Amino acid sequence: MTHSATTSGLLFSGSDWDFRTLARAYDAIEAIAVEELHLDTYPVQMEVISSEQMLDAYSSVGMPLMYRHWSFGKHFLYENLLYRKGGRGLAYELVINSNPCIVYLMEENTMALQALVTAHAALGHNHFFKNNHLFRQWTDAGAILSYLDFAKGYIARCEERHGLAAVESILDAAHALMEQGVFRYHRPPKLSQEKQTRSALERLEHEERSYNDLWRTLPTSKEDKSEDKIAERKESLNLPEENLLYFLEKNSLVLEPWQREILRIVRVIAQYFYPQRQTQVMNEGCATFVHYTLMTTLFDRGMIGEGSMLEILKNHSNVIFQPAFDDPRFSGINPYALGLDMMQDIQRIATKPTAEDRDWFPAIAGSGNWRETLLEAWIDHRDESFIRQYLSPTLIRKWRLFVLADMAEETHYEVASIHNERGYEKIRSSLADRYDIGATRPNIQVVDVDLLGDRRLRLQHKVKDGIMLEEAGRDATLRHIRRLWGYDVSMEGVDAQTGARLYETSADRAGG
């Protein structure tokens, strides 16, 4: 920061920065965020890290305090190779949903880029984390850092006591089930606070002292297959159960206390990331809308120079770039681009509506209350519901969206809906469905087990639209489940609509 920048009213000039410049820029950005956008955020803790530390952080699922596991190292080497060869850039920042909200900035960033990512992460993501109902319901921002610290230390102690191979075996199996290790339809307990963590350690120490392996020698009894008995044991085990990790943690007869706690650690971390998978368009769209609005406001007020603004716009354009479907770089819809377009479209509808907008959005068209509309949307919605409610015909035409009908028995696709009066509703509904993770993730549940009989764990996969699981991955995952359960595991695939049996597979003593 030079003296001339201060006297000219600019927050900074040139690419160099120091911590005083960062602080001054943050204060100016935060003031506009609160006054103009009415954002409500957690306190912010900003950390500056190297490119290697950034690689290390997002190689371990974006959590710098994560425990050790070989998969994180593998991911680090892969990302590092791409980065060194110029095949992939690094994230400019990393933000953690915690209280205080921790934002990691790359030390290699220029000052203009530091200002941009500060607005994006420290204000945009921060506001969304604090206010969106999914994050408020499913995560505890005040507890995650202490819980990660506990988890890292606990797994390290397990490695010392039980050996690296034993711990790695449990982690491998637990990681294979992370997608099926979350509660989707009812709220789980909050993350442990520090006192609860200490209580958990005391409980584990007691269980390990009193753990008795003699039950393994007990013979199984003859299985009672009467309908009343089956219904009674299902009720006693709260079946069906969607969260496989939770069921195994609570009911496996072969896991020792330390192994159960590792399953719980992986399950809690999987649950922590569950809202992020449902809100990527909204979360990134919110952060991108916030950084663009704040940066342009600073420029309009003469606080950012033209050279810095050009750099900011270049980086902004890179973030929201949407390759065409026939572009080799195309990998789907860019959530930054779709989210920003929808939020700017809401701003347009509220301030400069067309007759079509008034028909489609009578509650907000011409109201001028775009801030209130966005703030409410950021609180109340996830991607699926946000798209279903706010995607406009104007954006459908801009994005040239249409619906393809793909029938397995047909040799050609059929264009079922296009961007016209009859197709808008169908296109919007079809796109929203793609962001409903309840519909796009496999629906696999524990449906029965006789703990006093053969102890076979019975799973059911409800097959939607004829989409099967890939066999090699399915069977490998079943072997991981058998590793944690200790007895035979079978899975039946049934049609979600008709209930007809489509397949059955198993992992038994011979195959697992």
Strand content: 5-15%
Task: Report mean pLDDT, rounded to a whole number.
Answer: 84
Tell me how many strands there are: 9
Main sheet strand line-up: 6-7-8-9
Number of distinct helices: 22
Largest sheet: 4 strands, mixed
Total tally of structural domains:
4
Going by helix content, strand content and strand pairing, the class is: alpha/beta
Radius of gyration: 26 Å
User: Helix coverage percent of residues?
Assistant: 40-55%
Please mark out the parts with pLDDT under 50 across 5 or more consecutive residues, or reply none: 73-90
Shape: globular
- Straight-line N-to-C gap: 63 Å
Write a short abstract of this structure.
This is SpoVR family protein. With 512 residues, this protein is α/β, with parallel strands linked by helices. 54% of the residues lie in helices and 10% in strands.
Question: Secondary structure elements and their pairing?
Answer:
Layout lengths: L2 H6 L10 H18 L7 E6 L1 H9 L10 H15 L8 E4 L4 E6 L4 H21 L1 H6 L5 H19 L1 H13 L17 H17 L16 H10 L7 H8 L5 H22 L1 H21 L5 H15 L14 H17 L3 H6 L9 H11 L2 H8 L2 H7 L3 E3 L8 E4 L6 H11 L2 H4 L2 E6 L8 E7 L7 H15 L3 E7 L5 E7 L5
Parallel strand pairs: 1-3, 7-8
Antiparallel strand pairs: 2-3, 4-5, 6-7, 8-9
Helix pairs in contact: 2-5, 2-13, 3-4, 5-13, 5-14, 7-8, 7-12, 8-12, 8-22, 11-12, 13-14, 13-15, 15-17, 18-20
Question: How would you sum up this structure, described in words?
Answer:
Residues 442-496 form the SpoVR-like C-terminal domain. Residues 16-438 form the SpoVR protein-like N-terminal domain. This is SpoVR family protein. With 512 residues, this protein is an alpha/beta fold. It folds into four domains: 3-132 and 279-313, no CATH class; 144-211 and 220-277, no CATH class; 321-438, no CATH class; 456-507, no CATH class. It has 22 helices and nine strands. A hairpin with an 8-residue loop joins β4 (403-405) and β5. α7 (144-162) packs antiparallel against α12, α8 packs parallel to α12 (257-278) and α13 runs antiparallel to α14 (306-320). The radius of gyration is 26 Å and the shape is globular. The N and C termini lie far apart (63 Å).
